Amino acid sequence: QVQLVESGGGLAQLGGSLRLSCAASEFIFSNYVISWARQAPGKGLEWVAGIFIDGRDTRYADSVKGRFTISRDNAKNTVYLQMNSLKFEDTGLYYCKTGYNVVGGRSAGYWGQGTQVTVSS
Q1: What are 111's strand-pairing partners?
Q2: Backbone phi, then psi, for 104, in 5-degree steps?
């Protein structure tokens, strides 16, 4: 079955940390770039970070560079997003998806169902 399943979202303190997980089916994990994207309330989709199949190429949006780290565990078919120094503007629904951008929206590529991240004071 081709799927992506996110977990790890929740409520975090301003300046705090969260780690998101994305469990991928073998087919996706072995053949696709996997990224994280997010959607803040009332706003459009924003690509956040991506990692290449071999894990050697990682890319980040300017808004999260230096605070977020994307990584992958090949033994678990899982991609992680470590989020540190969280800001209010990091609040949103975080999706795991294939590809390095969000062109075409949720109709392009494979997407998970999302996990909610809320940053509060």
Answers
A1: 97
A2: 90, -5
What's the pLDDT tens digit per position in 84-106? 999 999 999 999 999 998 888 88
Q: Which residue has the tokens 């078919």?
A: 77
Q: Minimal CA–CA distance to 83: which of 29, 5, 3, 10?
A: 10
List pLDDT tens digits, range 9-28. 999 999 999 999 999 999 99
CB-neighbour burial class of residue 43 (10 A; exposed 0-12, middle 13-18, buried 19+): exposed
* 8 Å CB contact between 37 and 115: no
Q: What is the CA radius of gyration of the chain?
A: 13
